[in-house]
Write a structure and sequence with these properties.
Blueprint lengths: L5 H14 E3 L6 E3 L3 H9 L1 E3 L5 E3 L3 H7 L5 E3 L6 E3 H12 L2 E3 L6 E3 L6 H4 L2
Antiparallel strand pairs: 1-2, 3-4, 5-6, 7-8
C-alpha cells in the first residue's frame, strides 16, 4: 500500500472498483480475476484427520498446535504418540522406576532430574 496523490485518487478509485474485490471471509483486497482461486485455496473447508472442519489456510497451524492427533514426544522415553494420548502415557511412563547408580535406590523416572540433588 502506498499514498496516492489527490490528483490521481479518482482514477485510482475507478481502477480499484473495476479490478479489485474485497474477500468476504478475510477482508483482503484481491484482484477480481483471482478471487475464485483465492477462496478455493484459502477459505474452502477441509476436514482434518481429527474430523474437525477448518479453513484450508488454517489447517497447518491447527495440525501443528491444536490438533489432538498431532505428534507429541514423551518427556521420559522420547516415544512419539498422538497428543491426546500423551498425558495418560506420561503418567504411566513417569511412574516407572530406574535404579540410581549413586545410591542404589529405585527412583521414579519423573523424579530422576531432581534426584541428584538429594542423592546421598
Amino acid at each position: 500500500k502506498k499514498d496516492i496523490s489527490a490528483a490521481n485518487f479518482v482514477m485510482h478509485e475507478i481502477h480499484c472498483s473495476r479490478n479489485i474485490e474485497v474477500c468476504r471471509y478475510c477482508s483482503e483486497s484481491i484482484p477480481k480475476s483471482e478471487i475464485k482461486n483465492h477462496i478455493e485455496s484459502e477459505h474452502v473447508q477441509v476436514t482434518c484427520k481429527c474430523q474437525m472442519k477448518i479453513e484450508k489456510s488454517l489447517l497447518k497451524d491447527h495440525e501443528a498446535s491444536a490438533c489432538p492427533l498431532r505428534p507429541a514426544l514423551c518427556q521420559y522415553c522420547d516415544i512419539q504418540l498422538s497428543f491426546n494420548k500423551l498425558q495418560d502415557h506420561e503418567i504411566y511412563c513417569g511412574a516407572r522406576t530406574e535404579r540410581c547408580g549413586g545410591c542404589g535406590r529405585n527412583i521414579m523416572v519423573k523424579e530422576l532430574k531432581e534426584h541428584p540433588q538429594v542423592c546421598g
